[in-house]
Write a structure and sequence with these properties.
Length: 333
């Protein structure tokens, strides 16, 4: 018997019709059709024809059973039976609301008498009849094909416990040692392409480095960091702290390439790398989410980084990050 479940087809129902007519036991029907006996039992129970006026014609007929099954599936599609609700959900999706947000708000506001859950909206987005609307483009991940439920892999194996931020030495936390960095990814509007920026900040000096990437794939991002930091002496690139985004899953390349250790924030706790989060706010003043990176060269990002590094900071006693970084690099305090 196959481990992968598939819907019963008309051909299966034709074979089942003959088996039912021959009064073959359920277990034998299941064996011959390669199905679980519960599947066969439910199929017969759900799709047997019954008519109070003509009880003599009651029974399991293949074509009738197929029609009953299709009608049930059509009937259960709430968003086909309620066009106004369907239009409202499409409007919210195009406003980049997630299915969970839409379902939760409909319930909270009591707008619709029909109860809709996030799973119903996902099925609507990816069903064959409505796939042509392209609503998947407005989802957070914008996947063309939906992953099976429960298929998301836990990230504990990707980011092991030995690299958690709780294991990070105190001299990194209190900024007493130079050469420890925090990194993050700045994402821009999806319609403008997949280009993004890695923002990296040295914890002691608040020195900013900006690197342009063409995608969110981890290996190219790590390679870009390695190329940018290789010219620095080892004491100036000792470690990096990231969040748990998949773009940083290739962190081991940093240790192999430049000997830098990686640390990772706890789940849903980006504030634990507050230095780069603060820098991102400054960067967004000049590069909002609507910025088109397609024609922006790396030298433009280098100039922006220089401008940020030349601004005096209160936390540095009004010295600039560039001044503090240079002094630490040269061994001066």
């Amino acid at each position: 018997m196959s481990r992968c479940y598939t819907q019963i087809t008309l051909a299966d129902r034709r074979r089942l019709h003959h088996l039912v007519a021959a009064k073959v036991p359920i277990n034998e029907m299941a064996r011959q059709l390669g199905r679980h006996r519960s599947t066969i039992y439910r199929e017969i129970k759900r799709n047997t024809f019954r008519d109070r006026e003509l009880p003599d014609y009651d029974g399991y007929y293949s074509t009738v059973a197929d029609d009953i099954s299709k009608e049930r599936r059509r009937r259960l599609r709430k968003l086909r039976r309620h066009p106004q609700l369907r239009a409202l959900i499409i409007e919210r999706l195009k406003a980049y609301w997630s299915p969970e947000q839409i379902a939760g708000r409909l319930l909270a506001d009591g707008i619709s008498l029909v109860r809709i859950c996030a799973e119903t909206i996902y099925r609507f987005i990816y069903c064959k009849e409505d796939y042509g609307l392209g609503l998947y483009r407005y989802l957070p991940e914008a996947r063309r094909k939906r992953r099976s439920r429960g298929s998301r892999k836990p990230r504990n194996s990707v980011f092991p416990a030995t690299h958690r931020i709780s294991q990070r030495p105190d001299y990194i936390k209190d900024r007493s040692q130079f050469g420890h960095w925090e990194g993050d990814l700045l994402i821009f509007e999806r319609e403008l392409g997949h280009a993004n920026i890695t923002s990296i900040v040295e914890r002691t000096s608040r020195y900013v480095v900006l690197l342009k990437n063409q995608s969110r794939h981890s290996n190219p991002i790590m390679d870009r960091i390695i190329r940018a930091f290789s010219p620095l002496p080892a004491f100036a690139r000792q470690s990096f702290t990231f969040d748990r985004g998949t773009e940083f899953a290739g962190f081991r390349a940093l240790e192999d390439g430049i000997g830098a250790r990686s640390w990772f924030c706890d789940p849903s706790a980006p504030w634990q790398k507050g230095g780069v989060e603060n820098a991102n706010k400054r960067i967004r003043r000049f590069m909002p989410g609507s910025t088109d990176l397609a024609n922006m060269p790396q030298r433009a990002l280098n100039q922006l980084a220089r401008d940020l590094n030349d601004q005096p900071r209160k936390c540095l006693n009004y010295r600039t990050p560039a001044e503090v970084f240079t002094d630490r690099l040269l061994g001066r305090r």
